[in-house]
Amino acid sequence: MSETRAAVGAAEVATLKELALGGALTGTTVTCAGLAERLDASNQTASRRLQRLAEVGAIDREVLNDGQRVELTADGEALLRREHADYRRIFEGEDADVALDGTVTTGMGEGRHYISLPGYMEQFIDRLGYEPFAGTLNLDLDPESVRERARMDALDPVRIDGWEDDERTYGPAFCWPATVETDAGQYETAHVIAPERTHHGDDQLEVIAPDRLRDEIGLEDGESVTVHVAGEDA
Ligand SMILES: Cc1cc2nc3c(=O)[nH]c(=O)nc-3n(C[C@H](O)[C@H](O)[C@H](O)COP(=O)(O)O)c2cc1C
Ligand SMILES: Nc1ccn([C@@H]2O[C@H](COP(=O)(O)OP(=O)(O)O)[C@@H](O)[C@H]2O)c(=O)n1
Ligand SMILES: [Mg+2]
């Protein structure tokens, strides 16, 4: 996503916004002439910007007889959400805290293995400042929080690099500082972790921490939890 953002300029972002205002989040039909008028630009400019947005993977498009069908890709939407997060910071202050609600659940039992691998563990110690407990606490996010999660993606993450050993390659992951809150209390030094090669959908959140949270704050499957997520610099 950051690659997409870096690859387009302000003019393309403005074009993307105009497309989204016209319904392109879920797909819409546009003509270069119509878009040009809305952008107060020439047809040629509108056409060039559409081409650029398609090249960087911010939109999918299909040429029709009477125009083109345009839909924002996930990267395109993330790019606009990032703009949105910037404006929130401008108008609503620095409080960029994202609160995600979910219930504790049992996952596939793989988190333990991945977190323990030295190629990740050394980076966690170096970049998060602690040795995480071997595993990820999994939460089933509420539907509203699945949408809210996109705001988390707009916060600056701590990056954990991919690496390889003799057998295979391991994917990168993003971590965001987080506080885990329950009715009984809160736990502060945790991180949400989003492995690039996860087998879970975006309705599942994984949290890592120095301690086993099930013991530390007494969690069981089905229990409600709120995770407050902040950006790396927050
Ligand atoms: C730090 C980290 C790195 C991961 N890297 C990979 C990977 O390279 N390939 C892969 O198939 N899954 C990878 N996984 C994802 C796990 O296979 C799985 O999607 C999930 O994290 C397991 O969670 P669970 O056991 O809590 O359900 C990684 C998980 C973590 C925590
Ligand atoms: N900081 C953490 C990480 C994992 N855990 C728990 O530790 C166990 C091992 O994690 P895991 O990711 O391998 O297992 P699952 O999440 O797949 O069930 C699970 O029961 C997690 O819920 C925890 O309580 N606190
Ligand atoms: Mg887990």
UniProtKB/TrEMBL annotation:
The entry's keywords: Flavoprotein, FMN, Kinase, Magnesium, Metal-binding, Nucleotide-binding, Transferase
Cofactors that this protein relies on: Mg(2+)
EC number: 2.7.1.161
Pathway this chain belongs to: Cofactor biosynthesis; FMN biosynthesis; FMN from riboflavin (CTP route): step 1/1
Record domain Riboflavin kinase: where: 104-229
Keyword Transferase in record: yes
Superkingdom of origin: Archaea
Family the entry assigns: Belongs to the archaeal riboflavin kinase family.
Protein name, UniProt field: Riboflavin kinase
